[in-house]
Amino acid sequence: MRIGELSRRTGVNAHQLRYYESQGLLEPARGANGYREYDESALLRVKQIRHLLGAGLSSEDIAYLLPCATGEAPTLVGCPELLAAMRSRLRRLDDQLASLAQSRDALADYIEAAERVGGESYPPLGLTQPA
C-alpha cells in the first residue's frame, strides 16, 4: 500500500508517517516509480508507535524499543535493554513531575501571600480599574 492508504487506514497523516520513517521507525520499500510501498505489517507498527508516543516516549526511545514490541497495545518483551531504557525514561518523568510540583507549590505560596496583603483590591492582571 502507498502512504496515502496507510494514512487513511491508521488515521495518522502522511507527514507524520514520513517523520516516523526519518526516525527509523518505519521502513517502507520503494517501488520502481520511487513511491513508498508499505506491507500490512506497517499497520501494526504505526499503531505500536502511536501507543508508545502516548506513553511519553521519544521517537529515539521507540526506535530502541520496537524490536521488543509485540501486538497492537503493544506488549513489550522484557529484554534488559528495554527495561533499562524504560526505567531511564521513568526517572526523567519523575524528575519533571517533582520540578512541576515545586513550581506549583511556589506559585501557590505567592498567591496566598498576595491575598493576605490585600491583593484582592487590585484588578486582575491586564485589566485597568474604571475611573
From TrEMBL:
PROSITE patterns: HTH_MERR_1, HTH_MERR_2. InterPro entries: DNA-bd_dom_put_sf, MerR-type_HTH_dom, MerR_fam. GO terms for molecular function: DNA binding; DNA-binding transcription factor activity. It comes from the Bacteria. CDD domains: HTH_MerR-like_sg3 (cd01282). Residues 1-68 form the HTH merR-type domain. Keywords: DNA-binding. This is MerR family transcriptional regulator. It comes from Streptomyces qaidamensis.
